[in-house]
Design goal:
The structure holds two protein chains of two kinds.
Chain A lengths: L1 H48 L3 H4 L13 H9 L2 H32 L5 H11 L4 H14 L7 H4 L9 H13 L3 H9 L4 H12 L1 H17 L2 H6 L8 H10 L6 H36 L1
Helix pairs in contact in A: 1-14, 3-14, 4-8, 4-11, 11-14, 13-14
Chain B lengths: L1 H12 L2 E2 L7 E2 L3 H7 L2 H32 L6 H13 L2 H11 L6 H10 L13 H26 L3 H9 L4 H29 L3 H6 L11 H10 L4 H29 L4
Antiparallel strand pairs in B: 1-2
Chain lengths: 294, 269
């Protein structure tokens, strides 16, 4: 009898194990199927970007007989793609630095200083994150135009040094970090004669390093991918960023050259992809930070 | 703070006529009366809701499915999460251009797939008044599901394990465990995801700008793009500000309704 139950037990564990393998096998089919749906558009972009234009426009879609790497050369020769890339980099980096500057100072004030209406102000700033951009679009446009920023990169950089755009999110993210710094640390520094700015620079900022990296990565991505800003404020072709340049070429010069258009799309995706591979952790942390608190 | 000021200014602008060059002329409610008497405005409003109706359910169901799928310990599961996240980091411009090529009715990858799998002639997608909006909703959902997945996954991982296990010990089926334990515990996160997805859906802009400019025959013209068009193509700043306020009010009302409804299904433990 004992033997029998023992055998039955073994057989059930075997059955469950093999059932779990089958179930996982099905799971993997599902996982891979969805992965294919996520990757296929990018893969097709890559394939088309290496095709001969006449091959691209054929039905049924097929792999090119010969990979045309010259497409990328042509893209940079014929069109100001180098300039677009440079402009995107310049704006994204300078605007990100601006957000880091303004958000970290404001977050420090909200975390450590006492002033009237602090809570109300903090909630107003958070609430602005929920406002559709269309509502503020016209007044902000008029303001920046009056300041003489229309038609220059300044319109896409300077406001971020004053907390526009990602500023509210940055304040929210960094304030959380700053409030965790032990007050004793700060008091000790004050006794040693350090002022507020010194404390901010040598105690607060180093503690918040992970949050600062998260904010930089997300802000850089937001600017790199931004379309509405360049659409509203940039006027000349040689000022254009990759996003607006691509959008313009898609309906213009490249309307019959999907191979070059896909090459352009790939070039515009590459830097952010590299950043993602290097700093994946920080992308996910930034997103879950908003999610959990929300 | 400047944003707060801009909100007030935009509200006031809604009662003016202004071409950006001269000074704004006060016209009272004229912009709003023009709006309600315009057939195009009602079409645009209908399009906006049509898009919300298409985009929000696909996105919520899709991202919940993905989150549940990747919420387990399996070899290489991190790789799959990363892959599902790739569209999130990509610019909408690049994504829209890639999809417009996939949607190409003559040479596109999608219609080729439709024909190969089902032997059907695919629709003309972005060139068709009937299919352009679903096409935009599909590519937008594809781009965003990975984002919601990450948030929902964080929510799922904070569901107390002992609750799920005790449900199983009590003989609950997998489905019952999901509906009675997992879903209620996840509901605050799901609610958050629903709110941001809704707010997002009302702001549809980049896809329209790159792909259709509101066409064909205004079939993809939504409030957000309509406001932009009036402001920066027709220079009717006052009217555009009024439209933007309608968009704002709608977003606000829908969000409030959701907050009211949450009492019925969201559990804060």
């Amino acid at each position: 009898m004992d033997n029998l139950t023992g055998w039955q037990e073994i057989s059930t564990t075997r059955a469950t194990r093999s059932a779990s393998i089958t179930r996982n096998w099905l799971l993997y089919v599902l996982l891979i199927g969805i992965a294919a749906m996520m990757v296929a558009p990018f893969l097709w972009m890559l394939i088309t970007s290496l095709s001969n234009p006449s091959e691209a426009y054929t039905y049924p879609p097929s792999l090119p007989k010969q990979w045309r790497f010259e497409n990328y050369g042509e893209l940079f020769d014929r069109l100001p793609f180098g300039t677009f890339t440079f402009n995107s980099l310049k704006i994204s980096i300078l605007a990100t630095l601006g957000t880091l500057f303004s958000a970290s100072l404001a977050a420090y004030a909200f975390a450590r200083m006492e002033f009237r209406g602090k809570r109300t102000l903090y909630w107003i700033i958070l609430a602005t994150m929920m406002i559709p951009f269309q509502v503020t679009m016209i007044p902000v446009f008029f303001l920046l135009k009056t300041l003489g920023f229309y038609g220059s990169h300044a319109a896409l950089i300077v406001p971020h040094w004053f907390g526009f755009g990602m500023g509210a999110f940055g304040i929210f993210l960094l304030r959380q970090f700053f409030t965790t710094v032990p007050r004793e640390l700060e008091e000790a520094a004050r006794i040693d004669g350090a002022g507020s700015l010194r404390i901010f620079w040598s105690i607060m900022l180093p503690t918040a390093r992970p949050a600062l990296v998260t904010l930089s990565v997300l802000t850089f991505m937001a600017h790199w991918n931004d379309l509405i800003g360049p659409v509203l404020y940039l006027t000349d072709t040689d000022q254009m960023t990759l996003t607006i340049g691509l959008a313009a070429l898609g309906g213009g010069d490249l309307i019959a050259r999907v191979d070059l258009l896909m090459a352009g799309a790939l070039v515009s995706l590459l830097p952010i992809l590299v950043l993602f591979v290097v700093a994946q952790r920080f992308f996910v942390q930034g997103i879950t930070a908003t999610g959990i608190k929300g | 703070m400047a944003t707060g000021g801009a909100i007030v200014v935009a509200f006031l602008l809604g009662f003016t006529e202004w071409d950006l060059i001269g000074s704004p002329q006060w016209v009272g409610l004229k912009n709003y009366s023009t709006m309600v008497n315009s057939d195009l405005f009602w079409k645009v409003l209908g399009n906006t809701f049509w898009y919300v109706l298409l985009y929000v359910p696909i996105t919520i169901v899709g991202s919940l499915f993905l989150a549940l799928l990747v919420n387990r310990k399996l070899p290489a599961i991190k790789l799959f999460r990363t892959i599902y996240f790739l569209p999130v980091i990509s610019s909408m411009v690049a994504v829209a251009l890639i999809w417009s090529w996939l949607y190409n009715p003559e040479f596109g990858f999608i219609n080729w797939t439709v024909e190969t799998l089902f032997g059907l002639d695919g629709p003309r997608w972005l060139l068709s008044t009937q299919w352009a909006m679903p096409a935009i909703a599909i590519l937008s959902a594809w781009k965003v599901v990975g984002y919601n997945m990450v948030i929902l996954l964080a929510g799922l991982q904070s569901v107390p394990k002992h609750l799920q296990e005790s449900a199983l010990i009590d003989g609950a089926s997998r489905w019952r465990q999901f509906t009675a334990v997992t879903l209620p515990a996840l509901s605050p996160t799901l609610f958050f995801v629903l709110i941001i997805t809704l707010i997002n859906s009302f702001q549809l802009f980049e896809q329209t700008y790159v792909l259709t400019q509101g066409g064909p025959a205004n079939s993809t013209l939504t409030l957000s793009y309509y406001s932009y068009q009036n402001a920066f193509q027709f220079f009717r700043m006052g009217y555009a500000a009024a439209v933007a306020y309608v968009l704002f009010a709608l977003t606000f009302i829908v969000t409030i309704i959701q907050f009211r409804l949450q009492k019925r299904w969201v559990f804060y433990g």
